[in-house]
Design goal:
346 residues; alpha/beta; TIM Barrel; two-stranded parallel ribbon; 14 helices; 8 strands; globular; binds 5'-deoxyadenosine
Length: 346
C-alpha cells in the first residue's frame, strides 16, 4: 500500500485499480504519508499562502432540480431572494476593505439574471474595485459565457458533480445531463476562463469506482481549481434521509488531488467546515490552499440553504476574517492581499 502512495507521488497518477486502493484505504500511515507529500507539494507550488475569495450568494432562485440541493426549484419551503445590484456592490466594497481581491458571484440558475442584467454588475465591479471576478451560475450558453467573460469575469466554478453518467443521472433529473455539464466546462475553458470543477464526497449511490473516475477526470481535464466537499443532507430534498459524506475521506481526497495536480487551487470548503468544526483550517494540512469566506448579507446567507446546518457565523464568515488570519497564521501560513491567480497553465 505504501508503495502505491509513493508511486502516486512519483508519477502524479496511477492506473484505475491502483488509485482505487488509495481511495479506499483507511491506513493511518498511508494517509499521513499522503498528507505530508500534499503539503510539501502545495508549499512548493504556491508557498505557505492561503488565498481568500469573498463569496456572494446573490440569488437562490434556481430552475434546476438537483436531488441533493436545498434550493432546487421544487422545494416549496425555500425562502427565495435576489440581491439588488446595489447590495451586491456594497458587499464587494466591504470585501475589498477586508482585503479580498477576488469575489465569487454564486447563485442558482436564475433566469432573471440574463446577460443584460449581469453585464452591468460585472462592469461596475471591475471599474470600481481592483478585484478579480469569479462566476458560479451553473450552465449557460457558450455565447452567454463569452459575453460575461468579455464584460470582465475571468473565472468560473462549475462542479461536474460526477463523471460517471449513471451516477450523475441518479443525482439529477433527466433534463440535466452529464454531456451538457462537460460541454459547458469545455466551453468555459476554450473561452479562456480559469475553470473550477469538482464533486461531492459521499453523495447518495457514489462508489469508490465513481470517485476514482472523478480523480482521473480531474487529472485529464486540468482545471485551474477543484472544489470538493462532503454531501450534507437537506431536509426538504429527496435525499433528506441519506447519511452525510465523510470528513476524513474528503480530507484524504484533498491530499490525493493535490499530489496528482501540484498547481491546482484547492479550497477547503464550507461543507467540510460544516461536518467538521474548523474543517477549513484542517483542510490546509491536507494540501488545500483556498478558503472562501461568505460575505452575503446575513439575512440572505441564512436562506441560501443548499444543505442543512450550513456553517454560518464561524471562520467561513467574512466578518470573522481577522480570526481566520490569526488561526492560519498560527500554523505558519500567510494570507496575501492578492488576486490568487491559478498557476495551472494549459
Ligand atoms: N451537500 C453538499 N454539497 C452540496 N452542493 C449542493 N447541495 C449540496 C448538499 N446537499 C454542492 C454542489 C454544488 C455546490 C454549489 O454545492 O456540488 O455544485
Amino acid at each position: 500500500m505504501m508503495s502505491l502512495a509513493e508511486k502516486l507521488y512519483r508519477e502524479k497518477t496511477l492506473p484505475f485499480e491502483e488509485l482505487k486502493i488509495l481511495v479506499e484505504t483507511e491506513d493511518d500511515g498511508v494517509i499521513l504519508y499522503l498528507r505530508s507529500r500534499a503539503e510539501e507539494i502545495r508549499d512548493e507550488s504556491y508557498g505557505r499562502n492561503v488565498f481568500l475569495r469573498a463569496l456572494i450568494e446573490f440569488t437562490n432562485w434556481c430552475k434546476c432540480d438537483c436531488l441533493y440541493c436545498g434550493i432546487r426549484c421544487s422545494n416549496r419551503h425555500a425562502e427565495r431572494y435576489r440581491l439588488s445590484p446595489d447590495v451586491i456592490l456594497s458587499a464587494v466594497e466591504e470585501g475589498y476593505k477586508l482585503g479580498f481581491r477576488t469575489v465569487v458571484l454564486q447563485g442558482g440558475e436564475d433566469p432573471y439574471f440574463t446577460d443584460e442584467r449581469l453585464i452591468p454588475i460585472i462592469e461596475e465591479i471591475r471599474s470600481s474595485f481592483d478585484v478579480r471576478i469569479t462566476l458560479s451560475l451553473g450552465e449557460r450558453s457558450r455565447e452567454s459565457y463569452e459575453r460575461l467573460y468579455n464584460a470582465g469575469a475571468g473565472r468560473y466554478l462549475l462542479r461536474h458533480e460526477s463523471i460517471t453518467a449513471s451516477h450523475f443521472a441518479r443525482l439529477h433529473p433527466p433534463r440535466q445531463t452529464l454531456d451538457g455539464r462537460i460541454k459547458a466546462l469545455k466551453d468555459l475553458k476554450e473561452i479562456g476562463y480559469q475553470v473550477g470543477c469538482g464533486f461531492m464526497v459521499g453523495s447518495p449511490f457514489q462508489t469508490s469506482d465513481d470517485i476514482t473516475r472523478d480523480l482521473l477526470f480531474i487529472k485529464e481535464f486540468t482545471p485551474h481549481m477543484v472544489g470538493i466537499g462532503p454531501f450534507i443532507a437537506q431536509q426538504d430534498t429527496p435525499f433528506a434521509s441519506y447519511p452525510n459524506g465523510s470528513a476524513s475521506l474528503t480530507l484524504k481526497l484533498l491530499s490525493i488531488i493535490r499530489i496528482m495536480n501540484p498547481f491546482l487551487l484547492l479550497p477547503a470548503t464550507t461543507a467540510l467546515a460544516t461536518v467538521r468544526g474548523k474543517g477549513e483550517i484542517e483542510g490546509l494540512g491536507y494540501g488545500a490552499n483556498v478558503i472562501m469566506p461568505n460575505i452575503t448579507p446575513k439575512e440572505e446567507r441564512r436562506k441560501y440553504r443548499i444543505y442543512d446546518d450550513k456553517a454560518y457565523g464561524g471562520l467561513e464568515a467574512a466578518e470573522n476574517v481577522e480570526r481566520l488570519k490569526w488561526e492560519v497564521g498560527r500554523l505558519g501560513y500567510s494570507i496575501p492581499v492578492d488576486y490568487g491567480d491559478s498557476r495551472v497553465v494549459n
